[in-house]
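Hi W., the 3,4-dihydroxyphenylalanine complex you wanted:
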Amino acid sequence: MTDLNTLESDVLAQVAAAGDLQALDAVRVAAVGKTGSISGLLKTLGAMSPDERKERGAAINALRDRVQSAITEKKASLEAAELDARLARETLDLTLPGPYRRKGSVHPTMQVMDEMVSIFADMGFAVAEGPDIEDDFHNFTALNFPEKHPAREMHDTFFFEPKETGERMLLRTHTSPVQVRTMVSQKPPIRIIAPGRTYRCDSDATHTPMFHQVEGLVIDKGIHMGHLKWTLETFIARFFETDAVTTQFRPHHFPFTEPSAEMDVQCDRSGGEIKIGQGSSWLEILGCGMVHPNVLRACGIDPDEYQGFAFGMGVDRLGMLKYGMPDLRDMFASDSRWLAHYGFSGFAAPNPASGLS
Ligand code: DAH
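Structure:
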């Protein structure tokens, strides 16, 4: 009869001596594999008397378990050693110059944002900011969204897990909450733009889950639609760097403005590319309107004394139009070839002093 103690110390010695995962696996197969030495012992149990089988069977099973756990332990240590060796072998000196001497470039979204800030700064607008993680009040309620408005649903909005109080924070779905934050913290007259990131659960050629907007807000006495129209027409002509651009205002609905409108630019869609300033098609580029009295009230401003207008536009979309990029998703794919092609020189960044590049 095979001496279990000798077998065990033999197999354990082989396990200990295995220098790599392959050698260890060979030891495993030879011991506890289907035709291995320990599995073979189990097969001999059938020929034994019940008493003998009980005692011998328990001893063999215990031996098999000890060998198995020695193998598992050894495997973990070999894997850890292999990982350490690989990490040591593959160290990368990040201070060395890369193999491709490609110059960094300014992302088109940032370039377009700087262009917008420059144009509005020239018209006397200040830049305001707000948090990306918002609460329901600033993103919806203060902006006069009715309780069951579809934009509040999971469909569009990325919600966080509810807090203990039941309050759910969210990723702002637009830059309009910065209007609220500004009106609550500043007294009119107000003239701000709020550029920043926004988030919606959406993805196709013209939508990405994260995108950028610029919000605008003007609050003062005697403000009317004429001021809104001039401001936006002047902005668009400067942004597209041509006086030839024709725009139209179309009635629309936003909860936070009354009346509300969308502004379209005239464009040519023949030939697969969109060209601004010619042709007979229209392309929607922004939403706007007169700030709703309920929004003014929610922010502690008396609508009988002050009026204002607001607008919001998609930065990435306007950039696509101006610089001819076909797919919005490419903008955030971090493909260095795309960035090299569409990126801008850091020395050409527009600013309020120098104007557009
Ligand atoms: N917040 C709107 C959106 O994301 C855009 C917008 C429309 C902003 C009209 C405004 C506005 O300030 O007056 O679709």
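The beta strands are 126-127, 133-134, 170-171, 190-199, 210-220, 247-252, 257-268, 275-276, 281-291, 307-314.

W.
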